[in-house]
Amino acid sequence: MIGVSVSLHEIIYIVQLQTALLIIDEKMKIEMWQEVRMEKTNVWNPFEEWRHVTVRWIKVDISREDLKRFNERSNWKGLVQTISFLTLIALTAALSYFAFLNQMWVLLAFGLYLHGMIYGHFGFGIHELTHNTVFKSKWLNQSVIILFGLLYWPYNPYFYKISHMQYHHRYTLFQNSDGEDTANYVDLGLKSVLLLFFGVFRFRQLVVSLARLFTLKPTSKGWRQRGYRLDLWEQFVLERANDQDRKAVHQFAVISLIFHVVFAAAAILTGHWFLLIIITLAPFYGPGFHTYLCGIHQHANCRVNEPDYRISCGDALLDPISSILYWHMEYHIEHHMFASIPCYNLKKFSRFAADQLPPKERAVPRLIKLAKQSPEVFGSYTQWREKYGWFKGI
Q1: Phi, psi of 250 (to 5 degrees)
Q2: pLDDT at res. 30
Q3: Phi/psi of residue 220, each to 5°?
Q4: How many structural domains does the chain have?
Q5: Residue 1: inside a domain, yes or no?
Q6: 27-78 pLDDT, tens digit each
Q7: How far is CA 38 from CA 33, 119, 237, in A?
Q8: DSSP-assigned states of every residue in 98-159
């Protein structure tokens, strides 16, 4: 344990030194990996191959009056969703802390397993908040974006927003235009399932995120999961962003660094270091099966270069708790059709337009069906990666 005689300056110096060494090691690994990869596969270069397309999106028929009704934002509903989400996070954090204080190690392991699983859903909250639809008041929306961004620090919300709003929603699954996502392959083989349930430690992502944090690079673990060096898509997005957006990305990187250095120092010096495990390190442990179960339906087995959202996006039905954790994005077709509709209104809108939308299935049966369909749609995973995955840098 570090005693109170250690100064904050010394703590920062030690962390910076360790981070510098990790950066050097990470750079060497990335360069070696890139050399091998360039020999084997093509890599999409948006600086040379990106193109704008004008898409005439096909949506459901709805009157302006009805759409305006569903677009209505509410501070109260936004607070209910936000507080419900944070309460679920707090419950698993409290369980873990209780087990730690009482040296109940089996319960502690179970508590951290649940906590890490639920904590990973912060990315979905940030996603919805960057649409500026959760709250009627802009200042409240921005305040919660900052709070979530600090609690889930490997996910710079202002960096993510540029890619998501300017490319993914504008060019959904159009190749050479949407560099954020593509039609996803679903694999439920034994190895994949074991990783989803038992691949609970992500040390490399922690190292890379710390390296970016301490060098003020925008973090993107939540939606790119790349190395220390920005990948081509990240470079492209940042270079094409306007000055205001780039400034917001940098400012948040600075705020995040200051906050977490001060938080870490305070937690250690006051003897409450376990807070680092349930907050600072929480994005890097826990199983991924629940976020996968919720999120893979978005664009799995979907058709690329398709102007009809009912074909380029997918829905799934979730239980009420999972829906809160997922910020109701299981209504993903509806979300892409009208991104202006707040997440808490999507269910009502979906029922309103049900006769114009595909029938919905429960998440687990649909996931199994998607896993069976993926080889039929794409061939093998390798074939999918060579045809579609390279747009995501896979």
Answers
A1: -65, -45
A2: 41
A3: -150, 30
A4: 1
A5: no
A6: 444 443 343 333 344 678 999 999 999 999 999 999 999 999 999 999 999 9
A7: 9, 35, 22
A8: HHHHTT-HHHHHHHHHHHHHHHTTHHHHHHHHHTT-S-SSHHHHHHHHHHHHHHTTTB-HHH
Q: Is 234 helix (H, G, I), strand (E, B) or coil?
A: helix
Task: Compute the distance between CA of residue 333 and CA of residue 305 in angstroms, rounded to an integer.
Answer: 15
Asked if residue 77 belongs to a domain, the reply is yes
Residue 134 lies in a domain: yes
**87: which 2 tokens?**
């309460």
Q: Is residue 339 part of a domain?
A: yes
Region class of 393: left (phi > 0), else alpha (psi between -120 and 50), else beta: left
Instruction: State the Cα–Cα distance between residues 378 and 394, nearest whole angstrom.
Output: 15
- Among 303, 392, 335, 387, which Cα is nearest to 165's? 335
Which residue in this structure is represented by tokens 């920062």? 12
* DSSP for residue 303: P
Residue 28 is predicted with a pLDDT of 44
Q: Which tens digits make up the pLDDT trace of 277-305?
A: 999 999 999 999 999 999 999 999 999 99
pLDDT < 50: residue spans in the chain: 1-6, 8, 10-15, 17-19, 21-41
In the block, which residue shows the tokens 């190895």? 191
Amino acid residing at 331: Y
8 Å CB contact between 290 and 322: yes
12 exposure class (CB count in 10 Å sphere: 0-12, 13-18, 19+): middle
